[in-house]
Structure formats: C-alpha cells, structure tokens
Amino acid sequence: MAVQVSIPKGTRDFTTSEMSKRNYIFDNIKTVFKKYGYQAIETPAMENLSTLLGKYGDEGDRLIFKILNSGNYLNKIDEDNLNPEHIAEITNLISEKGLRYDLTVPFARFIVQNRSEITFPFKRYQIQPVWRADKPQKGRYREFFQCDVDVIGSNSLFNEFELIQIIDEIFEILNLKVTVKINNRKILAGIAETIGESDKFIPITVAIDKFEKIGLKKVNEELQKNGLSQDAINKLQPVLNVKRNTTESIEFLSEMLKTSETGLAGLEEIKTIFDYLEYFKPKSNVELDLSLARGLNYYTGAIFEVISDEVELGSICGGGRYDDLTSIFGMKDISGVGISFGADRIYDVLNQLNKFPNETEKSSDVFFINFGKAEELKCIEIANELRKSGYSCEIYPQKAKIDRQFKYANNKNIPFVIVIGAQELENNTLTIKDMSSGDQISIKNSELIDYLEKVQL
C-alpha cells in the first residue's frame, strides 16, 4: 500500500526553478544591504518562550509555535489539571521553547547577549525563516522568510531616511512599483490622547492596523467592543475616513494634535524624514498614511509599510523604530530602527507580473554533449578552464542519444550547448549552439572564452 506523504499546511517545497527565482530576490536584497554597510548575523530557529512572549501583543503571542519539552513533558502536570480550563498553565509547564515569530525580538536578545563584542551604532542584516501559527491563505504562510535590516544604538532620524533609500533601491532593482507608507506611533498616541482614550492606545492601534483588511465599519465595531466611547470613535473618523496627501495630513495633524506634546513630537519626526526626502527624490511613492498603525507593541516612533502598486497582496515590507526593546532583556536606553522585506510576498508579486529575468531560470551557462570517453576527457579539460573563468558548466555524465542530451539542456534552460565529436576532437575545435536562436558555429577551443564574453554570458 502506497504511503501518503504531505507537508504541513502553510509550508512549501521549492523546486530548483523556484529556488533560482528566490535566490535572485535574496541576492539583490543582500547586495543593497551590504552597500549601506550592514553586516550579516544569524540566530537560532527556536528561542526560549520567555524571550518571545509578551513582545507581540496578545494576538501575536497566540501565533507562536510552541515546542514540547523533550522527555516526559507531562511529569510536572497534575492529572486533575488536564482539562481545557488550565490550558495556559499547562502550556507553560510542558513547553519552554518556541519557533521565532520574527527576527526583531531575537535580534534584541542577541544585542544584549553580545553587547561586549558590538560596536554601536550596530548595523545588521538577517535573512532567515520565521514561523507563525496563522491560517494559511493567499500571500500568508506559516513558514516564510524575512529579510531584515536594522541599525541599533542610534536615535538619529537619518537612519529612517537611509532605510527609505534602501527600500527604494531594492524595489527599483527588482523592477517593482511600490508605495512606501509612513506614520509615527507618537502621532497615534497623540490621537488617542486627543480623543480622550490614552489608556486604550494598544487596542486602538491593533484595530487601526486592520483597517485595510476589514474596512472602517468593522474597525469601529472592534473599537466599540474594546470599550471606546462613541464620542471617541466619532472623533477618530476624520483620521481614518478622509484621504489626504502628505501635506494635507501634516496640516490636519498640526491642528488636531496641538494640545498633545507626544503627538507633536511624532509630527516633528515625520517632518524631518520628509525634509530628508526633499534632497533625495525616491523613485517610489512615499506618503504619510494616518491609518498605518503596525500592531506590534514594541514600535515607539516612525513606522513603515510598503505595498505593491501593481498587485493587491498586502504589505511586502514593513518596520519601524523601537526605543525600548532591549530594556526587557536588561539593557536600557538603546534605540533601534529596522525594516523587514517579505521575500515570499515579493516572490508572489514578481511571479504574478512575470518580472523575473529569464536568466534566473538557467541552471548553468554551458552544457557539453557526451559522445564517449575520448570526447568526455576533452570536455572535462575545457569545462575546467571555463569554471576557472567564472562560468558554470555541466557535462552529461554518460554517452547517450544526442536528442536526449539536447532535451536535458533545454529543460534546464541552459543557454549554450557545446558539441565535441570525433571531427572536432581531431581538429581541436568545438561547435557551440545558441539554444535561444538555434544558431551554431564552429570555433577553435582557444576562442571559446572570447566568444562567451562577446555574447555577454
């Protein structure tokens, strides 16, 4: 009987073709990160739950995958407590570790543990998978990669400006049109203060963060459910329900927040960022969006979100300023700011728009047909020279029908096939076929690298 095999919902296998496309994204993102002086780190896939819990809000905590303790994990549980009413208590006793929910909290932990070896401001990038026990759907997975870039140990708004530069450059390279949305958590705190609901700041931001997904009516319902008065909800409507450009939003906030010191401080930060952008004109659209909230609790200042202008898929990049994240691990007064590129959603956008370059599909630059032992030895010799010059090569591993070998090269999108038969071996020549055009020419072995350079391979 055949065994049914599968993978967990919300996870995926990646074929060689898909990996080529994914690596195209990773390589370009990594190249830009390095250009701005960011260095790579990695952290473990699992963290202690004490590190993770309480950093993402109640909704985030519920989405953390917890790992059962090894051995007899039930030995601490009283049989009388084995019922659903004690699920939270039981979970704490049988699970001490969890899969990381994002890369930011582990990064804060990393900073605290390695502070003696770090030069501040510390600029790091990190490209690794994260896990969330979310309901799988289009563009939302349980296992996905994040490409994070952060600078910590500096509260200068220059860092926010530089992150916008990085966003703009990466999406220009990837040939994607995007809008960069900016807001500030201090502005949101000022709005909560102005409508008389400062103590409900977190429920307000969590509800507002769902605005694009669930719409104004359901946001209002959630605010009401969380105890906001109808008067406060009414005062919030002009913030969410009116479309303004950046200049109009700044003018609106200047009036609305005139009695809130915190709100005005956030507005000044926003103005400073847009002042920088007057000197650096990004190709992407950058706008102040008052409905942007970023529901994660650790954000304290500027917040960012990037959406595609060409495909409706939600955020493909986001982040913000966190002034107090390391203090929960015992290291105070260390401010940081960072952004995370969602590689999986970027992949989906590029795929839907058919914007992956053709060369991402190729597995090798050159393929050698194998006619037998003598010809094979000459192929090995030439292939070794090509590899030394930076070209990737494949030799078919045994003699086989020529149609079969050409089909192999075609299926792997290899652009050039080299034929060295008995006549070529005798004359010290080779025949090279361009698989895209079908053209082929005979050249001397010594001319091969010059030929490949001319065709810009």
Walk me through what this model shows.
This protein has two domains: 301 residues, Bira Bifunctional Protein, Domain 2 (BirA Bifunctional Protein, domain 2); 93 residues, 3-Layer(aba) Sandwich (Rossmann fold). The chain has 457 residues and is α+β, with helices and mostly antiparallel strands. Helix 1 packs across helix 13. It contains 17 helices and 16 strands. The protein starts with 15 loop residues before the first helix and ends with a helix. A hairpin with a 6-residue loop joins strand 9 and strand 10. An eight-stranded mixed β-sheet has the order 1-5-6-11-10-9-7-8. The chain has a five-stranded mixed β-sheet with strand order 13-12-14-15-16. A three-stranded antiparallel β-sheet has the order 2-4-3.
Spatial strand sequence of the major β-sheet = 1-5-6-11-10-9-7-8
- CATH topology of the largest domain, anyone? BirA Bifunctional Protein, domain 2
Distance between the termini: 49 Å
Low-confidence residue ranges: none
Largest sheet: 8 strands, mixed
**Strand coverage percent:** 15-25%
Assembly state (oligomeric) = single chain
- What is the CATH homologous superfamily assignment of the largest domain? Bira Bifunctional Protein, Domain 2
**Count the strands?**
16
Sum up the overall morphology in one term: elongated
Please identify the structural class as seen in this structure: alpha+beta
Task: Please tally the helical runs, counting DSSP H or I stretches of 4 or more residues.
Answer: 17
Number of domains: 2
**Could you say what the CATH architecture of the largest domain is?**
2-Layer Sandwich
* Helical residues, percent: 40-55%
CATH top level assignment of the largest domain:
Alpha Beta
